[in-house]
Design a protein that fits this description.
Length: 114
């Protein structure tokens, strides 16, 4: 049986995911992203052990939708296995990535007050 993806809304614009982002879990991922209307959306991947091509596609799709709407997307807590998929598929340069959620929050808070 496939592992499910848990989505937790930590704060306005901050979504935390727990579980693999795979073809079985694309719908809850995209639904959570669509419901979040903040100008900057931070996706915390600390709890995501891996993703497959469907998961990667949904992540890129979410990024493009947000970019078209003038919104920013950042990823935090991306592990080495997921980062390797980004590197192999050449999408790592489109995503703004931070080591931790607090790093991302600090960067956007400081950017807003600069």
């Amino acid at each position: 049986m496939a592992q499910s993806l848990q989505v937790e809304r930590l704060d306005h614009g901050v979504l935390s995911f727990h579980g693999p982002l795979t073809i079985e879990n694309v719908a809850p991922f995209l639904n959570a992203v669509r419901r979040e209307g903040a100008p900057t959306m931070i996706l915390d991947f600390t709890g995501v052990p891996y993703l497959d091509s469907s998961g990667l596609g949904s992540l890129v799709s979410a990024y493009i939708s947000c970019a078209k709407a003038g919104r920013r997307v950042a990823l935090t807590g991306v592990n080495q296995r997921v980062r390797k998929v980004f590197e192999i598929t050449k999408v790592e340069q489109i995503f703004l990535m931070f080591p931790t959620l607090s790093d991302a929050l600090e960067a956007f808070t400081n950017a807003g007050s600069a």
